[in-house]
Amino acid sequence: MATKILILDDPTSLPRFITLELQAEGYQVSAICDPLSDRAIAQMQPDIILLNWDLRRTSSRHLCRQLQSAYAADRRPTVIAMVNNESDCYFSREFGAQSCLVRPFSISDLLSVIEYHLQDTYEKWDISFAPGKTTVAVTPCDLALCL
């Protein structure tokens, strides 16, 4: 079964472009540009949510926190925040995002972080992708988890 990815973004060409790229890679993708409740999102049962951290029509912070409580602990989707700077990355994690992508990001960065989260070991690491870097720093969140 294909991985379900939900893109929550403002109505621009970026969600359409990302949708086409991810579908070409074999993912099942939906892009939503209207505010949805956490329950409506839970009914869609996405595996991964790409969340624009600066949504104009709704609070990404509130939505991210609500998503964490709307799901059973074993079925929560991975929330990847699309942010504008490193400080937004920090705040997105405080509100429940598991990763962030700093804009502008490449499709290869996006695919890398998606594949990373589809692995069983993603909870052991803290990962950020920043544009223009040839390497990605991956650091353990808690060494006790890795032993």
Q: Main traits of this protein?
A:
alpha/beta; globular; disordered C terminus; 7 strands; 147 residues; 37% helix; seven-stranded mixed beta sheet
Q: Could you please describe the fold and organization of this structure?
A:
This protein is an alpha/beta fold and 147 residues long. The chain has 6 helices and 7 strands. It has helices spanning 13-24, 38-44, 60-70, 86-94, 107-118, 143-146; strands at 4-8, 28-32, 48-52, 78-83, 99-102, 125-129, 138-140.
How much strand? 15-25%
Please identify the structural class as seen in this structure.
alpha/beta
Main sheet strand line-up: 2-1-3-4-5-6-7
Helix content: 25-40%
Shape: globular
For the terminal residues, how far apart are their CA atoms? 32 Å
The major pleated sheet works out as: 7 strands, mixed
Low-confidence stretches: 121-125, 133-147
Number of strands: 7
SSE series? EHEHEHEHEHEEH
Rg (C-alpha, Å): 14 Å
Number of helices: 6
- Give the integer mean of the pLDDT values: 79
